[in-house]
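go over this chain:
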Amino acid sequence: MSTESQITAFRDTFVRLRQSIGRVLVGQEEIVDGVLTAIFSGGHVLLEGVPGLGKTLLVRTLSDALDLGFSRVQFTPDLMPADILGTHLVMENADGRRRFEFQKGPVFAHLLLADEINRATPKTQSALLEAMQEGQVTAGGEVRPLPRPFFVLATQNPIDQEGTYPLPEAQLDRFFFKLLVRYPSRDELTEILNRTTEGSSATAERVLDRDTLMSLQALVRGVPIASHVKDYAVRLVLATHPGTPTAAAIATQYLRFGSSPRGAQVLVLAAKVRALTEGRFNVGFDDIAAVAPAALRHRLITNFEAEAEGMDPDRILARILPEVPRDVAVAL
């Protein structure tokens, strides 16, 4: 298949997935695009928003549109790591002999919905660290690979913080994107009422199977990126490191820590997906800048001054982006 045919096939698949999800989920186009971008890049997503905005519905609808195994875990304070990973049970044979047998937990699925992940204790949250990074689970001294592809889509409520446990930075860094789910507009809310209060229901059309998805993921990684565009992603990440020669002034003022190298990896991969969705087989500066908020907002640690002045990571990034020159000659 020619490169142009591959680009067209990718773009058509992306659009069909977006339309299939849109049959069930009203609005939230930016969130849908962000989740699909992460999936085609092989990354995990953290969805943050108040209850009732369709976060769980989005993940369920996505599982319908993708021919992948799906499981859901409702995170609660009493949830244990074994409830996610699985545990060894004593089984009895027909002849009365007993043996230990590993019973897989819900993490052994292609698509795992971790609902209200910040309601579980850090011990349970950390059970996902190895799964998210390595695609495997270690239990009972044995390493067990997870199905491929494997995605975690986690949700959390930013308002009700009583009885919650904020995700540690090491786990936040393993999420490809952090997407902020906004309130629906007036027209969208009207459409939600039309769909949910008049007895009609829609289902998502199945668009993509496992093998096709993995081939498209391979296509994403094959998209070329020029050295000066890649350098822009590097300089953007370095600009978030406070107190360094490459730091933006606002980063030094409001940040304690900047983005990790994973942030630069995410910028490049997400920009490749964006380029393909726009029919291009090369990455541009605008692609990097467009994905920067979702890729970096959860990787910036603000200081007390930022909290006192209401400077959140998005506002800081909005100030950093114009400070990082795109022209290599200017940067040098």
